[in-house]
Design brief:
Blueprint: E1 4-7, E2 12-15, E3 19-24, H1 27-31, E4 36-41, E5 45-51, E6 59-65, E7 83-86, H2 91-108
Antiparallel strand pairs: 1-2, 2-3, 3-4, 5-6, 6-7
Length: about 110
C-alpha cells in the first residue's frame, strides 16, 4: 500500500517506499495523451518543483527525472506528463507529498 496518496486535477500521485506512481484516468487525460499509470523509482527523480495554488492560479507539482532534466519552454503544464495540477485547497496535501518524496530520496542516498 502507498505511504501517502493525493488526487490532483489531471491525475493522482501515490508515494511508496522506493517509488512514486502517477495515475492518469478519464477523458481529459486521454485527450492529452496521458492515460494510464507510470511508476518511477525514487532514485530516478532529479528534482521537484511545487507552486502553491491560489484563487487565480492552479498549483502544480513538477517532477524532473534523471533522463529529462530540462523542461521544454513551450510545453503547457496540462500537457506535461511529469506535472500534476491541483486546486489551492490541496496545497498542504501536495506539499506533504513533496516533503515525503524528498525524505525518501534522502534516505536512499544515505
Amino acid at each position: 500500500p502507498p505511504l501517502f496518496s493525493v488526487k490532483g486535477l489531471n491525475g493522482s500521485l501515490s508515494v511508496y517506499e522506493y517509488k512514486i506512481k502517477i495515475s492518469r484516468h478519464g477523458v481529459r487525460n486521454l485527450l492529452h495523451g496521458m492515460r494510464g499509470d507510470r511508476e518511477i523509482l525514487m532514485n530516478n527523480i532529479f528534482a521537484l518543483k511545487i507552486r502553491r495554488g491560489n484563487f487565480f492560479q492552479r498549483g502544480y507539482l513538477h517532477f524532473t527525472f534523471v533522463e529529462n532534466t530540462i523542461l521544454p519552454k513551450n510545453i503547457k503544464l496540462i500537457d506535461d506528463k511529469n506535472t500534476i495540477l491541483f486546486r489551492s485547497k490541496n496545497n498542504e496535501d501536495f506539499i506533504r507529498a513533496k516533503e515525503l518524496i524528498e525524505e525518501k530520496i534522502y534516505e536512499l542516498n544515505q
